[in-house]
Amino acid sequence: HYTDPDQAAEFVERTGCDSLAVAIGNQHGVYTSEPKLNFDVVKRVSEAVSVPLVLHGASGISDADIKQAISLGISKINIHTELCQAAMAAVQENHNQPFLHVEREVRKAVKARALEKIKLFGSDGKAE
């Protein structure tokens, strides 16, 4: 089920929300197969509403699809699962080490993944 542009416009108008999460073939958590995003929905909803669009469940979506979604109006991208995966990989790689070492490696791994995504999203160098 995809977000309906007309319903989205009515929802934004009636609620005065600050942003809108859209359903375009995305899902929360780990994908069991390659997601197939409906970019026409992104374009149509972006044209129908005046608020930033949010993409939930972006962990596992290809870099090319992320870039295309951004070009069509996605402004906020949620990647919690991917950050958790980076953290868990660091825990597994360091499970025999003292806790403070594990904690430091987890922080480094999550930071590295976040920086990769910040660059992919085109947000690097934009802090004021």
TrEMBL record:
A molecular function GO annotation: tagatose-bisphosphate aldolase activity
A UniProt-annotated Pfam family: F_bP_aldolase
GO biological process: one example: carbohydrate metabolic process
Residue ranges that the Swiss-Prot or TrEMBL entry lists as coiled coil: none
TM ranges: none
GO cellular component, one term: cytosol
Alphabetical list of PANTHER family matching this protein: D-TAGATOSE-1,6-BISPHOSPHATE ALDOLASE, D-TAGATOSE-1,6-BISPHOSPHATE ALDOLASE SUBUNIT GATY-RELATED
Name of the protein: Ketose-bisphosphate aldolase
Organism in which the protein naturally occurs: Klebsiella michiganensis
